[in-house]
Amino acid sequence: MKRANLLPLVVVGFVLALGAFSFWMILRVGDEAIEQAETLPNYLRTEALKYLDHQGQVWLEDLDTNGDGQPEAIAYTTRSGAADTAGGAIAFDRLVLMQLGKRKGRPLLTVDHTGIRDSLGQPLIDQVVATHGYRAETSGTGTGFRLHLTLLDSLGQRASDELTLAYDAASRRFAVLAP
Q1: What is the tens place of the pLDDT at every residue in 75-95?
Q2: Are 20 and 51 in contact (CB under 8 A)?
Q3: Residue 51 vs residues 22, 92, 96, 104, 145: alpha-carbon distances, Å
Q4: What pTM, to 2 d.p., does this model score?
Q5: 114 has pLDDT over 80
Q6: What are the DSSP calls for 97-155, one per residue?
Q7: Strand pairing partners for 75?
Q8: What is the pLDDT of residue 127?
Q9: Distance CA 147, CA 109 (A)
């Protein structure tokens, strides 16, 4: 008789424990999702700066230049002595537009003294070595985002025509827009 009375109590106790554990797991998973969402921009910043050997700074973030819903950020290494950087423009030696990939950051566009490259590492144009760096500014948002680049001279002034880059959905890479 004692065993018969204990069985319902054990079942009720097990069900209550299982319910409490399930409730705790739901709260924990929810907290992890919130924590991951809050650290996502930090992770993307870290990946972009890692690409620049931790020598740069983040210029823009929360971008989605290709419309795929994955966050992107632009980081660059500062070019000292550049005179023409008013109105949100930057002077730089190296730049990366980094997208958050499945396991790590993935560069969509890279710029350094040897050239401008797409996500596959292919040069976008034949160019002279950018000994004195670049000037960059942006326009548009989302898939209308444009990156405008010019070469700088030894005084930090513009030394070339402006080159406008945008994401080309057909090729799924950044490309030079026709002037």
Answers
A1: 999 876 555 555 678 999 999
A2: no
A3: 41, 15, 8, 11, 22
A4: 0.74
A5: yes
A6: EEEE-SSSEEEEEEEETTEEEETTS-BSS-----TT-EEEEEE--GGG-EEEEEEB-TT
A7: 58, 96
A8: 86
A9: 10
